[in-house]
Amino acid sequence: MAPPTKYKTAAAKLEAMRAKRTRYYARCREMILAKRRERYHANKNHQGDGDSSNDERTDDHSDDHHESLETLADCIAVVKYAKDDFMQHVRSPQTFTLGVFAEYTKSIPDAPGGHGDREILKRAMSSIEDFLERATRGQDGILQLCGVCDEWRAADQVCRSMRDTIAMMEDIYCHALSDGDAELAVVHLLNGFLYQNYEF
Question: How confident is the model at residue 112 (pLDDT cuts 50, 70, 90)?
């Protein structure tokens, strides 16, 4: 004889699964985070090597890393470490953008007709995109496992902060391309940059 149905609805089953994962994470949190930290740093060290054999190992390791998001705890850990690294890198989105903008303005030549080193802005945006990619992967994993829940909303706030930082630098980059470097001072004086009007 089959056992009685424990959960009458899909929502009840999902809620039970979520509670089980939450209990597991609470019980094994330190072990999970330590393992995730070790795996992340090992992967990052592999990416620093330049030869092709290391690249192959990195790809294999990266594939394992992507496939390892099987539990809510794994997904939360990915978002957490992406956020920690992001905050260590930028301190605050506004301050980071202002620093990048200052570095760009210093690269503007005195001679008319030239422009600053726009690679400064591109590199800054690229550095944040790496954090965003990692956090988004964790957020997507949470969505697949639990749907839109408190954990997903927290991850969404993290991703939004990263996207806002990229948007603030893209704003400067677009002004530099369309208006030219000479107009950047005018836009800044009029508080026309996105980072000048950014609200947390």
Answer: low
